[in-house]
C-alpha cells in the first residue's frame, strides 16, 4: 500500500561518547534511502535535518552530559513527529543516537497511544541513579516511561509517553547490573537473544504483535546495534552475539505483514566505524522490508 513517508534527520551525538553517529543521517541518504522506498511506490518527503548543536560549542554543558541541548533537540523532534502524524504521513527518523526517541516516540503518541517495538542490543533503561556512564542515550526508554530527568520526561507534554504494557523489546543481550534488575521488575515484555535462539525469530515476532494487539498503531525503534557486529560493524555501541541479516529481515517482514507500523526510528549508525557504508546499506534494506519489499 502506497503511503507518504516523511524522512526526518536527527544528527545528534550528544547522548553518548563515541563520535560519528551524527553522520548517520547522511550515510543513510547516501545509501539511497529515499529512492529505495520510492521504488516500492511510496511518496517520499525528506524534510532535512533537525538542527542539533555541535558538541564542541557546548563546553558549559559537558558536566550535565549535554542535558539542555538534548532536551531542546528532542522537543524539536517531538514537534516534527506530531506534525507528520497529523498530516497523515509516516515519520521515519534517522539518527543519530537513541536519545532522539525521547522526542520521536513522544511526538508520534501526542494525539493517540501506540505500541512500541524496541529492537536493540541494549534496553536503554537506566536512570540517573543507576547509570554507570551518565550517557543519556542509555536512559531513553526509562524517560519515555516517566523515570529520570524531569526536563526529558516532560518533553512535548508532561509525564510518561508510554505504559510498560505498550512496549515489547527484541534482541536484548547487553544490560548493566542495576538496569537488569529494573527491567525485570518493569512489566515490559523482553525477548532476549536467547529467546530468539531457542524459539526462532518468526515465533518471537508474531507473539510480540499479539502482545500489542491492544494498540492499533505501532512505532518501531530500530537500533542498528541489534545486528551482530560481523553483519553491521558501523554502530555506536557494538555488542557481539546479535541478529543475523536474515533474522533482522524476517522481523521487518512480519512487522510489515501486520500493516500497523506507523513510525520508524533508525539510530546509532556510525560511518566512522563502518566498512564501505555497509551498515547504512543494511538499514536501508531493513526499512524497505518494513515498508513492503517482498521476495515474491
Could you please describe the fold and organization of this structure?
By secondary structure, the chain is α/β, with parallel strands linked by helices. The chain has one domain (4-290): Ureohydrolase domain (Arginase, Chain A, 3-Layer(aba) Sandwich), CATH 3.40.800.10. Helices cover 34% and strands 16% of the residues. It has eleven helices and eight strands. It has an eight-stranded parallel β-sheet with strand order 2-1-3-8-7-4-5-6, sandwiched between helices. Strand 7, helix 10 and strand 8 (261-267) form a beta-alpha-beta unit. Helix 3 runs parallel beside helix 4. The two termini are 16 Å apart.
What's this, in brief?
This protein is an alpha/beta fold and about 300 residues long. The chain is about 35% helix and about 15% strand.
Q: Topology of this structure?
A:
Blueprint: E1 4-10, H1 24-30, H2 33-38, E2 43-49, H3 67-86, E3 90-95, H4 101-108, E4 115-119, H5 140-144, H6 150-153, E5 167-172, H7 177-184, E6 189-192, H8 193-199, H9 201-211, E7 218-223, H10 245-257, E8 261-267, H11 278-290
Parallel strand pairs: 1-2, 1-3, 3-8, 4-5, 4-7, 5-6, 7-8
